[in-house]
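Lab notebook, bench 4. Still working through the backlog of constructs that have no structural model yet. Next entry is a single chain of 227 residues. Request: give me the structure tokens for it.
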Amino acid sequence: EITSMGTGAEVLVVQADLSKLEDIQSLIQKTLDKFGRIDVLINNAGFGRLDWLEKLEPIKDIQGQFDVNVLGVIQTTRQALPVMIQQRSGHIIQMCSMAGLVGTPTYTIYSACKHAVHGFSEALRREVKPWGIDVSMIYPGGVTTEFGAHAGINRKTKATTPKFMLLTADDVGRAVVSLVRRPRAMWIIPWLWTFTMWMNRNFNWFVDYTTINRFTIPEREEELNAK
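Model written out:
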């Protein structure tokens, strides 16, 4: 698809399982063999399994998410970093999520993963800046992709992202390109989610009350009322 756009850009496609270190090492080496350098690393791959914690499978759902969403990000960054240090330049962009700033029911493991990526990236940014390397984190809200179809979501309530705050994959793509051109530490999109983050930090009791009474209790009503 990129080649057909006629931009003259060279493309390398490598299939890799980011839960396997040897695949990550091979990916980085093949990139260096073709291009000779790494200017931008975008850690975008990930998946979510959304359900009540006690219903998640310990290996497939819990460990599996951490293997890809956290360790995959860390190991890929670790393999690319020496190249960028040698270049004394580079830009690492982490595809985070509002789930990494605000925890919500059924997102326990996915949210934990994204919180971990946030902490990792914040610390890394302060480690590598002297080498001329930028680290950026982008926090999209709801995106109209097939994420929900593969996440095991089965809701009784209508608690969803308002349509006017939904993003498309193209919206996120344009934001990433903007970050490449002008790095910044954090970017929440759309900006209205900043209010949600502020409320969660300053009035967490209100967010707790609203979430529990408008989502958790209605979703689990049958189980709560069961004898």
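Notes after review: The chain has a mean pLDDT of 88. Helices lie at 21-35, 58-87, 108-128, 147-150, 169-181, 193-202, 204-219, 221-225. Flag for follow-up if needed.
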